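Lab manual, section 2.4: Encoding a predicted structure.

Procedure: take the sequence of the chain (301 residues), apply the prediction step described in section 2.3, and record the output as structure tokens. A sample record is shown.
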Amino acid sequence: MKENLNKAISWLYRSGRPLDVARYEFLFLNKSRDTLLAALKSYQNDDGGFGHGLEPDSQNPFSSPIQTWIALGIIEELGLDNEHEIVKNTLDYLQNKAPKNNDLFYATVPTNNSYPHAPWWHYSDESAIWGYNPTASIAGFMYKHALDKDSKYSAEKTISKAIDDFIKNPSNNMHELRSFLDMANYIEDFNKFDKSDEFIKLLLKQIDYNLEKNSDLWFKTYCVRPLQFFDIPGGYGFDDFKDLAKKEAEMILKQRNPEGIWDITWTWDQYPEAFAIAKRDWQSNLIIEYLKILKAYNILD
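Recorded output:
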């Protein structure tokens, strides 16, 4: 680790979430994954879903599809196989218990409103579903990790419908676009799906259209940045956007505040005490996410 990251690592050990400290030690120090498994499991509820502010902008302790979707990324970091208890319980929640309508998972859930949360996580009947965010990404994960033929077929149906719906009505929402991209990248045999080529071409066109090309804005405003799609080199579309992604990766180290860490570019309009905690948790998470990018783009020693 480069010496100029010492301040960020010291901050992480002082103020970061135990989960992110465990991720750092597992991903960068090759320490045992047992500590990270225990930390991740502490966010998992008896129903198999995840809550407890795993997504820091919602402090809801109860399970929700969004907070469970956040856990999927850490499951991938750990490389857990389908027989692991955490994976089995997660799939059971997603298949049998998570709220959805017409095969679309709820983005917000009613219990959000009883706990501090960002305004975009406030539940209402009208705002419960955000298109294919996070459904497309979750469907890709479920297809990859399906425990039986019925589960795989169910995920396959959702993916096929997602492809058709996107082609008919292409999204311009950065979170939904990322969800579609995740879906495709989860699936090794994605080209087996009908219209997969048309879908990928259109998806990359929409990403290009929505991407902020002015690098001066990437770390100053809430905008669509290359690394929001291509934080890991490779995958669909990477070759088309690798120069922009590399440029953003090379800017990361210069964007730290005097504490040596990275600030977030959003805020809440209420719950100031809870937001202070959420901000700290996001900064903790950002340290790990940026270190992963710096490593992936060969910017770290």
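Check your result against the sample. The chain has one domain: 3-296.
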